[in-house]
Amino acid sequence: MPRTTQLTISAEDRPGTLARMAKILGDSQVNIIAMNCATFGVHGAIQVVVDDVDNARKALDRLRLPYTEQDVLYLELKNVPGCLGELAGKLAAQKINVTAGYAAAIKGADKASVVLRVSDLEKAARIH
After folding, report:
1. Would you tell me which CATH number, out of the four given (3.40.50.300, 3.40.1120.10, 3.30.700.20, 3.30.2130.10), belongs to the domain 72-125?
2. What is the pLDDT of residues 15-70, one digit of tens each?
3. Fold that domain 3-71 belongs to in CATH
4. Residues 6+ positions from 13 with CB-CB distance below 8 Å
């Protein structure tokens, strides 16, 4: 799944916002694979990569939660020192710019999940 869709949900910056969004998706049998959130004053954005984009869209539309969609690169990398640097070097060598990203790994796990917005997704999806 090197290329996938990220949903960015616009939300108020207040207690319970993340819980509400996660419950909505969970109740719709949508699993969140990766998540990032940030606030900007009184507003925020929750970015998610999910296992079922169509059901996520339906759930968010039903509750009139505003969202946008972006095509992103989603990779599972070896969870070892230098692996992200190696990938970033390969992207740079192909003149592909990373414009946003987030990653997570559990200590001791074999894999780390990485989500990147890049300047040339088609080209980046072929790099591994």
Report:
1. 3.30.2130.10
2. 998 999 999 999 999 999 999 999 988 899 999 999 999 999 999 999 888 999 99
3. VC0802-like (3.30.2130)
4. 39, 40, 41, 42, 43, 44
